[in-house]
Request: fold
Amino acid sequence: MSTDEVLADVGPRLRRLRKEREVTLAALSEATGISVSTLSRLESGLRKPSLELLLPIAQAHQVPLDELVGAPPVGDPRVRAKPIVRQGRTMYPLTRQPGGLQAYKVVEPQRAMEPDPRTHEGYEWLYVLSGRLRLVLGQHDVVLSAGEAAEFDTRVPHWFGSTGEGPVEFLSLFGPQGERMHVRARPART
Reply:
């Protein structure tokens, strides 16, 4: 479908949505700050829809912008990235877009390694799925078990890997400096 065809369908879609919700042009005008005449011209196709006009309408109707423009359905949401193997460690990318926050499922084989702490820009969050993960962070040398998490500024010298007692699987989320994970937990029942 061409852009012109998509835009031509917006007006009737806006009118149908407004009428289904039993909202008058005057009430929608008051909610959006868009004049009644502009709303009427949008619905009749005499005015081309713009983001500046559609955003307040979507907000007033509490619908996603996609619904107003009839965006095509989103494609297959599965991430099918190929595993990356580096120095015996297998990393499965869980995010597709470059830059920003990156997520990986990491499988570290059983092996005893001498820690070699490194630093770089960023912030990391680790969550152990199975096994035991050794984390050397600055002066700390800790072992995380399944269900435990750690987060840290990667400018602090750090290293993580197998304890040597068995393989370990964990999730690694890495973001640019200043970008931190926001963990939301339910409050404990009292």
The CA atoms of residues 47 and 87 lie 60 Å apart. Residues 179-185 have pLDDT under 50 and may be disordered. Helices lie at 3-20, 25-32, 36-44, 51-61, 65-69.
